[in-house]
Structures are given as C-alpha cells and as structure tokens.
Amino acid sequence: MTSDLDTGEFHLPRSRAANERLHSLIPGGAHTYAKGDDQYPENLAPVISHGHGAHVWDLDGNRYVEYGSGLRSVSLGHAHPRVTEAVRRELDRGSNFVRPSVVELQAAERFLATVPTAEMVKFAKNGSDATTAAVRLARAATGRPRVALCADHPFFSVDDWFIGTTPMSAGIPEPVNELTVTFPYGDLAATEELLTRYRDEVACLLLEPATHTEPPPGYLEGLRALADRHGCVLVFDEMITGLRWSEAGAQGLYGVVPDLSTFGKALGNGFAVSALAGRRELMELGGLRHSGERVFLLSTTHGAETHSLAAATAVLDTYVEEGVTARLHALGERLAAGIREAAAAAGVGDHVVVRGRASNLVFATLDENGQPSQRYRTLFLRRLLAGGVLAPSFVVSSALGDADIDHTVEVVAQACAVYRKALDAADPTPWLGGRPVKPVFRRLV
Predict the structure, then answer these.
(1) Which of 184, 181, 221 minimizes the C-alpha distance to 203?
(2) Does the pLDDT of residue 198 top 70, yes or no?
(3) SS in 3 state form for 310-366?
C-alpha cells in the first residue's frame, strides 16, 4: 500500500477497478448493503482476495487486521481448521439429497445440547428466513395479525413486514406496513401501553435481547411476563448475541427463555446457516405430528445442505470445548481498553467512543458538538485503512493475537491525532478525500 499517514493519501487501483466491475454486474456492487463501497471512504473500499485467521488481503496485495468479519459471522477467524476439516469430510459424500441426511440429525442434536432452552430447531440459510418464519409461526399460533418489534434495533429481515419500517420502504404496500408496530427497548410501560392499545392484535414481541447496552435489571423478565399476560409470543433475535454472549446465547446468559429464537452469524463461521429454535408446542405446528391446521414454517432447498451443517456442528463443538466466548470477551476488553487510552491521550476520548459488550464492540465518531458524524467516521475509517486495519466495527474474532491488537491500538492512536486536528479546525473536510460514508438505510441514493 502506498500511503502517507499524515495526509492520508493512498490508492487501491485494482480494488477500485473491481468495484466498477461489481457495480456494472451487481446492484449496489455487493450482495449485502452493509458491504457496499458507500460504507467506506471514496475510492478506498478494498475488494478482498482471501483471508486467513484475523487477516485479509485485498486485490492490491495489502494485508489488513480485520474486524467484524463477514458482518460478525466469522467469529473463529477465516479458514478455521476444525471448521474447514469438518466441511472437507463431507465434500466427497454429497451435499443435498431427496431425504434428510444424518448430518441434519447430528447438527440438530448438537445445537439443542448447546442451547438447552430450546426444544426443537429448524435450519435455514439466512437470518431473514428464520426470523420471518418465527413471525409467521407466532401469527399462526395466536391468530393475530400484528408484529411488534423493537424500534431501537437496526435490522431483523429483508422481508416486507420489517423493511416497510425503514427509509428504504419503496415497493412495499402500505397495508403491510400498518401491520408492524414498534416499542422502545428498555421501556416496559411503553410496551404494555402498545399491547393494551392493540389488545388481542399483537402476535409477537420481537427484539434483540441485548445490543450495545446491557438490558436494564428486570427488563427481559418483564417482557416475558408481558407476553404471557397479553397472550403473545416472545421472540429473541439472537443472530448477533448467539454464541457471542454465551454458548447458549443471551437467553442462556440472562436466564430468560423466549418462546422462539433465531440464530445465525457466528453459527457457521462464514458458512451459510441459520436456525429457528423454540418451544416444541409452537415449533411442532410447522411439523406433521399435530392435528391442527398446517403452518408453512421453513422449507428451503438448501437449508439442509450438509457442508454448512457440518460447519455449524464444528463451530458449536469448538465454542463449547475451547471456551471461545470467554476468549472473545478477553480480547475485546483488551482492545477496548487500548483504544480508550489512545483516544484519551489524543484528547478525543469524548469523540471516538467504543461501546458494546466486549465480544461485540462498535465505535461512535462524534463531532465537535458531540453529535454522531458520518464525516468524522470517514476520517477515522480512512486513517484505519491507511494503517492496515479494516474495521467498520471493532467486533473481534478469536483468531486475533496480541500483536494484532497492539497494532490496531497504534493505528487508532495515529487516527486520533488527525481527529484532534479536525476537531480543532471544526472541519474534517481536508482529511476526507472525497464524499463521506453513508448510512445503509436512506431513502435516496
């Protein structure tokens, strides 16, 4: 990488050319909006060649320490040997059959042993399908039309019932939007008021059990009681908290059992697998051993593809046997402490702010008035890239070593020195190198 750390001038010619080709073939230039080049400083969005452990290499040959790998999915590091070996064993045995494979049984047994609060599980390929299946199941079980979701959590599904609540709601009929209502995280009184206002209409309460802040004392227990009292289904979206909070998810850590929960992200260490899990009484409505009306729960051609299920089984084994969750927390605590110290030393401790559980760290970039700023985020990301750190977040993988964290803290310190200059000038423009990064959810391009 040709780079001048004082001016921030450096170039990624091959990545830039590949991004142009991507945009000509793929709407948005990526298969996930959060991976789009609009999320990075102008002309500085690396296109990845390969990865190993906690490092990735771009098409220009630059190596980066990577955080938030695979949108938080690669929590063991790229090409983890236990996972790749489990997949390799299945490669010559076929991948998809006209009847269930024994791998499906093994994966289900391993999952339910790891998440004992669930009684049945069904696998799919992505989180949206699993979470939408939970919504459909809740509606079928209760006979109610409305979905109540937490307004403070950023993403639940690509399906209409959720996307209609975002600024990118084009193409979704208004009658669909009207069936989704929202409640604030941590506010039991507001949630009860919502359930009372839509009495006997709300099929489920859907939320991430925890995000950047811990749940207030008694909050999850209170939601459990509200759901029981109002006859609706409590659904935990554990796409992120699953495995990262504890091997049994947030429900295992906090001791509050939802009726249904959805898992993904870390479950496959980058392989495509998600899960809907929950109480047998509800889950069996999507099965064959009941006398009621059938529910089309999940029925996906590739949901039981054996390579991904073998990967999931190996991931769960690795977490349980090697104490991965504890390692993630230890790495995150060390990283957070180093970043906070570096930011404070540069005089920007109130502007570069690390938040979240140690295993799931994010950062905020605040302007001279203490307000979130995409322009200052652009400056910060640019400095990190210049130093060989690819970090849309600071979400750790267990493959990180002490040297990786030390290097990251050193690069953050350099970035914070430039951040201080921009704050003193009350204008980060000279350090942006082009247009600022943009939020994923916005109405216009």
Answers:
(1) 181
(2) yes
(3) HHHHHHHHHHHHHCHHHHHHHHHHHHHHHHHHHHHHCCCCCCEEEECCHHHEEEEEE
Report the pLDDT averaged over residues 162-189: 95
Average pLDDT estimate for 14-23:
97
Structure tokens at 329: 């927390």
> What local confidence, expressed as pLDDT, does residue 444 receive?
87
Q: How many CA atoms lie within 13 A of 42 on its CB side?
A: 8
Beta carbons within 8 Å of 305's beta carbon, 6+ residues apart: 95, 96, 125, 272
Angstrom distance (rounded) from CA 392 to CA 388: 13
What pLDDT was estimated at residue 232? 98
> Which residue in the block uniquely carries the two structure tokens 């494979």?
101
- Give the tens place of pLDDT for each residue, 150-166: 999 999 999 999 999 99
Q: Write a three-state SS string for the chain.
A: CCEECCCCEECCHHHHHHHHHHHHHCHHHCCCHHHCHHHCCCCCCCCEEEEEECEEEECCCCEEEECCHHHHCCCCCECCHHHHHHHHHHHCCCCCCCCCCHHHHHHHHHHHHHCCCCCEEEEECCHHHHHHHHHHHHHHHHCCCEEEEECCCCCCCCCHHHHCCCCCCCCCCHHHHCCEEEECCCCHHHHHHHHHHCCCCEEEEEECCCCCCCCCCCHHHHHHHHHHHHCCEEEEEECCHHHHCECCHHHHHHCCCCCEEEECHHHHCCCCCEEEEECHHHHHHHCCCCCCCCCCCCCCCCCCCHHHHHHHHHHHHHHHHHCHHHHHHHHHHHHHHHHHHHHHHCCCCCCEEEECCHHHEEEEEECCCCCECHHHHHHHHHHHHHCCEECCCECCCCCCCHHHHHHHHHHHHHHHHHHHHHHHHCCCHHHCCCCCCCCCCCCCC
Please tell me the pTM assigned to this model: 0.95
Rounded to an integer, the average pLDDT of 46-70 is: 98
Which pair of tokens denotes residue 412? 């953050």
* Average pLDDT for the chain: 96
> Is residue 5's pLDDT more than 80?
no
Encode pLDDT of 362-399 as tens digits. Answer: 999 999 999 999 999 999 999 999 999 999 999 999 99
65 beta partners: 55, 389
